[in-house]
Write a structure and sequence with these properties.
The protein is an all-alpha fold. The chain is 81% helix and 0% strand. The chain has helices spanning 5-40, 45-73, 75-94, 99-117, 120-127, 134-161, 166-169, 171-185, 199-218, 227-249, 257-260, 263-293, 298-304, 306-317, 319-325, 328-347, 355-382, 389-427, 432-440, 442-446, 450-457, 462-494. Helix 12 (263-293) runs antiparallel to helix 22. The longest helix has 39 residues, at 389-427. The chain is globular and about 75 Å long.
């Protein structure tokens, strides 16, 4: 180790964790603020989903490119560029005066975040040799739990005093700190023989994901039979199929063949994608339930997430000890099944149930993810070929962002469709003079804005509107729980070849 190498390793770990905190903080702090944005910017259910999905989609589509850029031009240099773009776009989000402007800056924020987050695991992998990499990756994973706690609580505190724009200003000082540490401590690294860029592959994957997600999100405002929805979903499937064909034929694919041959990497990435696909819907619906149905403040909602965050943080900190005796397949599989039990439990949440029910579900989800994330991350990076840590880190992080973008679109769409169908059925029994207003209030019902519904339709709509939202809420979370359980089975079966602890 070179002089000061230990200090450089620790500071590199710090900057990777700071970047991770920025990424996760942005997701959770924005989720807490969704009802405030919904009211002040007059966002429809689809517009509200796009505040989250536009950011996640840009991340998912461009993270692989960010990793390739890092391998080619230097991981530190590209990482810094991503942090700067992310920070400036956060300021743009804070200054937005309309839903369209906010969504536009969220896309730019996602571009910067894609470049930044694609290289966090790569920085750790380059700074630490494989035999001691488990502990820093465990700390990196624990930073996510700390960011969840910080995001929910900090978001609640800010929103109790300041407008929703304050949640984006938080990223500015954190981004400045990441830039300062990177410039002073992170060593530059790159692939000795850079791969040519697969521009067509990047364009096909990004275009396919964009079309597919737009179709799912638009179904929240339209219907599944809408020509726009059907056309976008069908076109997205065709473009992604063309991407697969292209990757098999091109001389230098976006995804290196050596990486594709690593079974643990692909299966760990698939588990990550499915788990976060479900988790994004879980966050979205639980936040709407507590703030719109229960009438909680943003602060109280944020504090409730501590029952998820504290177990996550402490269990993730034990990643090294758990990894000494528990194989990756067992840690990943059991973690997903524990989380699935928590999500299934939360699907049965009603206004009549005590908070202790929700708290126990939060704890199960937190413990489950704390087992799954460090073990899955370490297993994936352990099989990345030498010289490809940038693209490997990028692809692994991309799986989470693809899951987040597609999960919110799918689960949000399913929940909204069920709520709308149930509402239209119940609204048929209203007095004739109120049926028209009830028909116009469908979007408010799907978003859980019960006060807005009673304001336009009357007090008689209170119980039917709440019941319709809760039916969509229940089905969306039941589907989310089933998806995480499927991820657990994939972890048990797909990572069995890693018979020894990672």
């Amino acid at each position: 180790m070179t002089p000061g190498g230990g200090s450089r390793q620790r500071l590199t770990l710090v900057v990777a964790c700071v970047a991770q905190v920025m990424m996760v903080l942005d997701v959770l702090i924005v989720s807490v603020a969704l009802p405030s944005m919904q009211r002040e910017l007059h966002l429809s259910p689809a517009g509200l989903e796009w505040v989250v999905s536009a950011y996640a989609l840009a991340l998912a589509a461009l993270i692989p490119l960010g990793g390739a850029l890092g391998d080619h031009f230097g991981r530190k240099r590209i990482f810094l560029a991503g942090v700067i773009v992310f920070t400036l776009a956060s300021a743009g989000c804070a200054l937005s005066v309309s839903g369209g402007m906010l969504i536009g800056f969220r896309v730019v924020q996602g571009v910067g975040g894609a470049v930044m987050s694609s290289l966090t695991l790569s920085l750790i992998s380059e700074a630490y040799p494989p035999e001691v990499r488990a502990r820093p990756i465990g700390i990196w994973a624990a930073a996510s739990g700390l960011a969840v706690a910080g995001g929910s609580v900090l978001g609640g505190l800010l929103l109790s005093v300041f407008p929703w724009s304050s949640i984006f200003w938080v990223n500015v000082p954190i981004g400045a700190l990441a830039v300062v540490i990177s410039l002073s401590a992170v060593a530059e690294s790159r692939e000795p023989v850079p791969r040519p860029f697969d521009s067509a592959g990047v364009a096909l994957s990004a275009g396919g994901l964009l079309l597919l997600t737009f179709g799912f999100v638009d179904s929240a405002d339209a219907t599944w039979g809408s020509p726009i929805v059907v056309s976008c979903v069908a076109a997205g499937v065709v473009v992604l199929a063309a991407f697969v064909v292209w990757e098999r034929r091109v001389a230098y694919p976006m995804v290196p063949l050596a990486l594709l041959r690593a079974p643990g990497f692909g299966r760990a990435s698939a588990v990550y994608l499915l788990a976060y696909l479900a988790f994004s819907g879980f966050i979205y619906y639980v936040t709407l339930f507590f703030q719109n149905i229960e009438g909680w403040s943003a602060l109280r909602t944020g504090l409730s997430w501590l029952f998820f965050c504290v177990p996550y943080f402490f269990v993730a900190q034990l990643g090294k000890q758990i990894g000494r005796w528990l194989p990756a397949a067992s840690a990943v599989g059991s973690g997903c099944l524990i989380a699935a039990a928590g999500v299934f439990g939360m699907s049965q949440l009603t206004t009549a149930k005590p908070f202790a029910w929700a708290a126990s579900c939060y704890i199960l989800v937190g413990v489950g993810f704390a087992l799954m994330v460090p073990a899955g991350s370490t297993a994936a990076m352990a099989e990345v070929p030498e010289g490809s840590s940038g693209i490997g880190s990028g692809l692994f992080n991309a799986s989470r962002q693809i899951g987040t973008a597609m999960g919110l679109a799918i689960l949000g769409s399913v929940g909204a469709s069920v709520a709308l169908a149930d509402w239209h059925r119940q609204a048929g029994a209203f007095p004739p003079g109120q049926r028209h207003n009830a028909a116009q209030a469908g979007a408010d019902v799907a978003g859980g804005q019960i006060r807005a519904v009673t304001g336009s339709v009357g007090r008689l709509a209170l119980d039917p509107a709440s019941a319709s939202f809760l039916r969509g809420f229940e089905l969306a979370l039941l589907l989310a729980g089933a998806i995480i359980a499927a991820a657990g089975l994939l972890g048990f079966l797909g990572l069995r070849h890693l018979s020894r602890p990672v």
